[in-house]
Write a structure and sequence with these properties.
- By secondary structure, the protein is mostly helical.
- 62% of the residues lie in helices and 2% in strands.
- It is built from ten helices and two strands, in the order H-H-H-H-H-H-E-E-H-H-H-H.
- It has a two-stranded antiparallel sheet.
- The protein starts with 14 loop residues before the first helix and ends in a 6-residue tail after the last helix.
């Protein structure tokens, strides 16, 4: 069995996780940053509906950004191109595309007016995903992008490091990974940012120190 890449499904990008992560980032108002999760999955695809869906959404994100920043030509060009990519994909991966197409039409008709209002929230499987709705690994993808979009590069780096440990724990069959649990807590809007970030930093630093200590046991002195 193959996927949209034409290769081994085990080597394919996690389209579902990246799709949901990008939608949550977009819905949180970080419109340009939303293209990063989508692009990370899109780059590994070679044709097919997943490739066209992600390509179209990438252009929706960029077109929305251009409309809101006054780049009229960029906004209208990308709106038209995105509409072409998304044609015939209604319901693919559960994405509600009718509101997206209406938004693209609004940009094409009057990018200045469109840029003065918020775009529709992207719905996946009937849900306008927010960051707090995500599960791991989608949360691990969205977290660093949101932090970076909000100017918190330190938190973005911390979340990327935590994501690597969370993936490693899951691959090892470890349940109750603090890196998974705390990543989800950081994205939960009902929790203050500082406590889960502080606990996550402690866990990351302890894990890094432990791995460094283990690595040091196998180092030689060059003799």
């Amino acid at each position: 069995m193959t996927d949209d890449t034409g290769g081994d499904p085990a080597d394919a990008p996690d389209v579902e996780a990246h799709l949901r992560a990008g939608a949550a980032v977009f819905n949180a108002g970080a419109y340009l940053a939303a293209h990063d999760p989508w692009e990370a999955a899109w780059l590994g695809l070679d044709g097919g509906p997943d490739e066209r869906l992600l390509h179209g959404l990438i252009q929706v994100a960029a077109g929305t950004h251009h409309a809101r920043t006054g780049n009229i030509e960029g906004a209208t060009t990308l709106a038209a191109s995105a509409r072409d990519y998304l044609g015939g994909l209604d319901g693919h991966r559960g994405v509600a595309l009718a509101p997206v197409r209406e938004w693209l039409d609004a940009i094409a008709a009057d990018p200045v007016a469109a840029g003065e209002r918020d775009p529709p929230r992207i719905r996946v499987d009937g849900v306008a995903l927010a960051p707090g709705d995500l599960e791991f690994p989608a949360a691990a993808i969205a977290g660093p992008e949101l932090a970076a979009a909000r100017g918190n590069d330190e938190a973005a780096d911390l979340l990327r490091r935590a994501a690597a440990f969370g993936h490693a724990d899951l691959a090892d069959g470890k349940t109750g990974s603090p890196f998974v649990a705390l990543t989800l807590e950081v994205l939960d809007p009902d929790r203050p940012d500082a406590p889960p970030l502080g606990r996550l930093r402690d866990h990351v630093q302890r894990r890094e120190q432990r791995e460094n200590d283990v690595a040091g046991l196998f180092e030689t002195d060059g003799e």
